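User:
Can I borrow your eye for a moment on a structure tokenisation matter? Would you put together a sequence-and-structure record for a protein of your own picking? Please set it down just below, with no commentary around it:
AI:
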Amino acid sequence: MEGGNSPNLQLQQLPLATAAVSVQPHTDSFSYKENLIGALLAIFGHLVSSIALNLQKYSHIRLAGSKDPRAYFKTKTWWCGFLLLLLGELGVFSSYAFAPLSLIVPLSAVSVVASAIIGIIFIKEKWKPKHFLRRHVLSFVGCGLAVVGTYLLVTFGPNSHEKMTAENITRHLVSWPFLLYMLVEIIVFCLLLYFYKEKNANYIVVILLLVALLGSMTVVTVKAVAGMTLVSIQGKLQLDSPIFYIMLVCMAATAIYQATFLAQASQLYDSSQIASVGYILSTTAAISAGATFYLDFMGEDVLHVCMFALGCLIAFLGVFLITRNRKKPVPFEPYISMDAMPGMQNMHDKGIAVQPDLKASFSYGALENNDNMPEIYTPATLPIVQEQHGSTGGSAPPYRVLEHSKKE
């Protein structure tokens, strides 16, 4: 009897063993070390990328404000920024191989904080302490909130780790939750693209939603490519699998189209609006894709999920406050010096010529635009031909100014 019942006992104990295995990765101390390594790589990458973009912006401004005939790509400053940008992107790319997708994506708030700090440090106007604090109080509060949100994200982020082998990625790719998610995303993307192209719905939310949907697929494929590369380096070759090259092609295609829509958005809207709205939408879409494809929050308790969501909300609020404080650039408009036209009513009581506030606007780099370049443009004046009394013949000038004597 005991020998006949022994197989039944083994079958009854099997589900308990599998349940214990599924919980074990969350209690392993090494998984937390992998989270920390991935978070540090992402923070380092975003910091270096922000510094690189500001170096490139400084190179453009310096050339625009001088009479140097060289192109921007022939300067050492621009190339230094370009190499740092490659280093930063490599750090962010490597972080996806260690930590879950839902943890790495929200850490892009670090680049917004770094850009705001660089903009405050290199500001050109001199402010009194009270005016300086009043001017940048929202930036300081936003940076503090972004730091608090980042700490909560790293502390309570998902701790699910899975080897990015070709077999595991293929299994996730054909799972019904991800297929349903992809179906909904494709329908929404097609609707947004129809309204954007056919109905001319050039709203910032529409364009950045297109960017966010493409970006969610970009980060999913980036994690797959980075994870399979790491597994190959560790000794188990994955680069000979077709799924690796499928993910690589999808990563490149979605990144290119994402950059195209971002370029169109930068032509229509201010970079501060793109930074805040784009960060919120892209982070939300990427976390949803990571939770559906890689099952990042599988096995996490409710407390960790709620604290992670709170960290995301605090980071969203911090980025919004930082970008809210940015001064909007004033576009350059040619003008006519009114005081050069006698007899015309002046627009100012004191007779000062009309002068626009010339600010150079760039769509990347620091969030502070204080680039005063008064020597780039010169006033555009129209020729004035004074008509003298008693003159005969000749064609009429485009602008005729009559001079009257005091008696008249």
About this structure: Residues 162-295 form one domain.
